[in-house]
Amino acid sequence: MEVPVLNQNGQQVSTFDLPDNVFGVEVNTGLMHQAYVRQMANARQGTHKVKTRSEVNRTKAKWYRQKGTGRARHGSRNAPIFVGGGIAHGPHPRKYTKNMPRKMRRQALRCALSDLAGDDRLVIVDRLALDAPKAKIMNSILANLVGDGSALILMPGKDEAIERSVRNLPDAQTLNAMYLNIRDLLTFDKVIVPLDALEIIIAWLG
């Protein structure tokens, strides 16, 4: 698949032939969904906790006398039916982690990249560089490349100027190409990939 390569002004400077084994595979939505659910589940801490009736610290004295009140027979204020009592069947600490084979995870990334490339949502640029962090300049560059909408910028390595420039933009985010994941690929409207980062992705998933 041949795609245009743009500069920071949004002008085409050359073309690049994307390999079909990474950007031209058959899109498997079920596999992508499984990878997405796995990533979101593994991000959960699972530290939620409520107190049961045995853990609530309230008086152990009998609430009111057994007979003569006309009310039901109760001996504890810790019961779940009372305000301030324990919680029945509430959440407790647990692990939400899901396993998925590495080949399936990488194939899900290939499917997501192929879907982006097929919908013209993959923007290839020759390079991204700023002399100093400047959100205003970065915002104009993103306007030239993607127009309206959110954008994910894949970086070949650490770039303080680019990262700090994007940090305050509400609809943009940077990500190291080696940390490519299904959630970020599906979250943003367009994905901006410099040629250096593209070579990393091809070497990793090719």
Molecular structure report:
- The relative contact order is 0.18.
- The protein folds into 2 domains: 2-44 and 98-205, Ribosomal protein L4/L1 (Ribosomal Protein L4, Chain: A), CATH 3.40.1370.10; 50-90, no CATH class.
- With 206 residues, the protein is an alpha/beta fold.
- The longest helix is centred in the middle third of the chain and has 17 residues, at 102-118.
- A hairpin with a 5-residue loop joins strand 1 and strand 2 (12-17).
- The protein has 7 helices and 6 strands, in the order E-E-H-H-H-E-H-E-H-E-H-E-H.
- The radius of gyration is 27 Å and the shape is elongated.
- Helix 2 (29-42) packs across helix 3 and helix 4 (135-146) packs across helix 5 (160-167).
- A 6-stranded mixed beta sheet has the order 2-1-3-6-4-5.
Give me a quick take on this structure.
This protein is 35% helix and 15% strand. It has 206 residues and is α/β, with parallel strands linked by helices.
Determine the number of helices (DSSP H or I, runs of at least 4 residues).
7
Structurally, the number of domains stands at 2
Please state roughly what percent of the residues sit in beta strands, choosing from under 5%, 5-15%, 15-25%, 25-35%, 35-45% or over 45%: 5-15%
Work out the radius of gyration.
27 Å
Low-confidence stretches: none
Please tell me what the overall shape is: elongated
Round the mean pLDDT to the nearest integer and report it.
94
Number of E-state strands: 6
CATH topology of the largest domain: Ribosomal Protein L4, Chain: A
Per CATH, the class of the largest domain reads Alpha Beta
Q: What does the main sheet amount to?
A: 6 strands, mixed
Let me know the CATH homologous superfamily of the largest domain. Ribosomal protein L4/L1
The second-level CATH architecture of the largest domain is 3-Layer(aba) Sandwich
Helix fraction by DSSP (H/I, runs of at least 4): 25-40%
Structural class: alpha/beta
